[in-house]
């Protein structure tokens, strides 16, 4: 199982949208996918069409060791499984403080079901806290969604600093897999300028696919569906399909369409 943490401590960059739609598109291309909602807001859960308050067993209980992952996963309409988050998860951070190996709770929980999946996608909270550290410790690599604006570069340098510390102390294999430019508007000169700056710093880590500013992407969560189900022919859907194909292509994984 290849595990990606979708992380950016700056809110409003399309992080959850990337996590949900990457899970849906990878499932569409025949991969077995687990979406781990590690954000107490539970937006990845509701964006997958799952009522976050309808289930007793959630990621909160998994992290506290009350039950294993396989008892808490739920299958979404788009064909991937979800480990659900709700407001309870915010309490996990405080409760884990006294635990030994608290940074490894998620990694150890996911290890038990790794054989069931090709990919695990972790939607991180928009903060560099203990939950995010758990995600970075569990992940093989990081997918960083970012808007092409000035403050995004500042946030990116903070995240890279955190990754360096995690790599040195907790997870030596972690790497940046992809920087994905989101809410992209090619008509803006600032967008183009920041985009070029990101490419000059990170080279081929910056994916060719950009996710455009698109009304269908924005409205899909209110319908509880990934955009590829909400409006498969929209520009937003096509961009997410292209992103999944680029990701699979970089690993030489053949693309199969599901029925």
Topology:
Blueprint: E1 2-6, H1 15-28, E2 33-37, H2 43-47, H3 59-63, E3 73-75, E4 81-83, H4 89-96, H5 105-111, E5 119-123, H6 130-138, E6 141-147, H7 150-169, E7 175-184, H8 189-202, E8 206-212, H9 215-219, H10 227-230, H11 235-250
Parallel strand pairs: 1-5, 1-6, 2-4, 2-5, 6-7, 7-8
Antiparallel strand pairs: 3-4
Q: State the major sheet.
A: 8 strands, mixed
Overall strand count: 8
Oligomer: single chain
Q: Which regions have little confidence, pLDDT < 50, spanning 5+ residues?
A: none
Q: How would you state the average pLDDT, rounded? A: 92
User: Could you estimate the helical fraction of the residues in percent?
Assistant: 40-55%
Termini separation (Å)?
Answer: 23 Å
Integer tally of domains: 1
CATH superfamily: P-loop containing nucleotide triphosphate hydrolases
Which outline best applies?
globular
Radius of gyration: 17 Å
Would you give an account of this structure?
β6, α7 and β7 form a beta-alpha-beta unit. The protein has a single domain (2-250), classed as P-loop containing nucleotide triphosphate hydrolases (Rossmann fold), CATH 3.40.50.300. It is an alpha/beta fold and 259 residues long. The protein has helices at residues 15-28, 43-47, 59-63, 89-96, 105-111, 130-138, 150-169, 189-202, 215-219, 227-230, 235-250; strands spanning 2-6, 33-37, 73-75, 81-83, 119-123, 141-147, 175-184, 206-212. It has an 8-stranded mixed sheet with strand order 3-4-2-5-1-6-7-8, sandwiched between helices.
């Amino acid at each position: 199982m290849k595990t990606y943490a979708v992380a950016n401590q700056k809110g409003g960059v399309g992080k959850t949208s990337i996590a949900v739609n990457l899970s849906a598109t990878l499932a569409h291309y025949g991969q077995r996918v687990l979406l781990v909602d590690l954000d107490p807001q539970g937006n990845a859960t509701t964006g997958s069409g799952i009522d976050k308050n309808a289930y007793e067993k959630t990621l909160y209980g998994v992290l506290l060791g009350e039950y294993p992952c396989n008892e808490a996963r739920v299958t979404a309409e788009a064909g991937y499984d979800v480990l659900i988050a709700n407001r309870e998860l915010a309490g996990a951070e405080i409760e884990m403080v006294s635990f030994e190996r608290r940074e490894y709770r998620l990694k150890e929980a996911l290890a038990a079901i790794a054989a069931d999946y090709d990919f695990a996608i972790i939607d991180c909270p928009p903060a560099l806290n203990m939950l995010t550290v758990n995600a970075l410790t569990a992940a093989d690599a990081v997918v960083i969604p970012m808007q092409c604006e000035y403050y995004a570069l500042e946030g990116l340098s903070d995240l890279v600093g955190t990754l360096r510390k995690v790599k040195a102390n907790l997870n030596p294999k972690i790497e940046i897999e992809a920087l994905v430019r989101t809410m992209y508007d090619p008509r803006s000169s600032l967008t183009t300028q920041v985009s070029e700056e990101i490419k000059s710093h990170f080279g081929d880590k910056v994916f060719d696919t950009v996710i455009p500013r698109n009304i269908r992407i924005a409205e899909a969560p209110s319908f509880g569906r990934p955009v590829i189900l909400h409006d498969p022919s929209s520009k937003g859907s096509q961009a997410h399909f292209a992103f999944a194909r680029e990701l699979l292509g970089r690993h030489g994984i053949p693309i199969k369409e599901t029925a």
